């Protein structure tokens, strides 16, 4: 043993480990400590620290409720009574113990649990814990060795209770608890826990930071959406207000015209009516005078006719041509108005024409400059610095550098074409890939069904239909070019960040496949028939 006793005193402070629960925790009664110490000395079998010796063990089979290594209660007679636990309280204790282990309880609680599971003989955690009939626990090896070296009756080294034989019970529950405490209090385990704790803390901190950043980003996005939405609403309202104004003006003008014409017709009839009424009154006066003269002829000889009013001349009743009056307003008003609206649209369709001076020599342009076709035969054009000499391209005459402009191109059933806008500064004498970087913002078709935006590399577009008319919308102020299927005005693609400076509508009918009929590109101008007024 590593602790020895001489006389009535403990030589080593480790005694607090051995009987700390018996003596030190209940230090209030020093006389009892002395009494028990003396008792231990006198019997020479009750103190494991003085009587460590060889001994034999008996395997016991009696089962008693686990009482732990809690301090036994001291009776007034100096007897040591271990607390008796019921099964329920035992499980309750185990649950608490388990919870305290798994939750990595406060160091003091853990230390207390460790003390409870410490063998009073070797002052270390139990190894193969066994329980005596008094319900005190010791390591199997410790109690066996204690009994082998003890003289006299078999006793519990902790409470001195005497037993008839060397019996103990293996306590698997305590054994399991000890293993858990041993595992959870090892340096490696603690360090690993601390590391885990740090890592978990850091990962939680990082995740929280990420979420906070994400919240900020979401809020910022919501603000942007609100701002852009408000701008767009204002824009849509503005455009419709302009349309409403056009319609309202048209309606007012037409109703005013109708009211004027109606009044004119009414006045014509009114004048005739009044003249006829006046004529009737004059004739009635004359009739009266004539009747009086006729009655007087019985008495006197009539020498002259009575004085009569001159007869009023009334014009022929004006003709009212109901068809002429109503036809004007029975016309397809909505269509007429819609056609008139083209003149007021902003941007209205730009009446473009091809600039022959820019055309590649193999492109032929119609006389009215609205058709361009590649026919494989090089024309004898005048040399012009504006002309495309390498690529089969052509520009429109009209260039833009401010405002908003819209035009439409009839691409028909051409299996390939390019169109869009080109910077005025593009190199017209080199073979250049069409892309915004080289000054072209284009849409293209290849093989009859492969639509792409002219980015580098090309951006393939999946269109649900094969538009025969392409609308191009250029917003110089917003630096955007958008392409539409002009049949239903669905958006096909948009370029942003178009270079500032003058740009021109750009077209390429591409090189016609030999053996196929050349297909022209046609500039559309609305309304097809100009309305006067
Ligand atoms: Zn032990
Ligand atoms: Zn005992």
Brief characterization of the structure:
This protein is an alpha+beta fold.
Ligand list? zinc ion
Q: Major sheet: size, sense and barrel closure?
A: 7 strands, antiparallel
Q: What is the global morphology?
A: elongated
How much of the sequence lies in strands comes to: 15-25%
Mean pLDDT: 79
CATH homologous superfamily annotation of the largest domain: Zinc/RING finger domain, C3HC4 (zinc finger)
The percent of residues in helical segments reads 25-40%
Number of strands: 22
* Strand line-up in the sheet with most strands: 10-11-22-13-18-19-20
Q: In the CATH scheme, what's the topology name of the largest domain?
A: Herpes Virus-1
CATH class of the largest domain: Alpha Beta
Rg calculated over all Cα atoms: 58 Å
Derived from helix and strand composition plus strand pairing, the structural class reads alpha+beta
Question: Which regions are unreliable across 5 or more consecutive residues at pLDDT < 50?
Answer: 1-105, 529-533
CATH architecture descriptor of the largest domain:
2-Layer Sandwich
| First-residue to last-residue Cα separation | 125 Å
| Count of folded domains | 3
Number of helices: 9
Domain RING-type: 119-160
Pfam families: PRY, SPRY, zf-C3HC4_4
Domain B30.2/SPRY: 332-528
Region (Disordered): 37-58
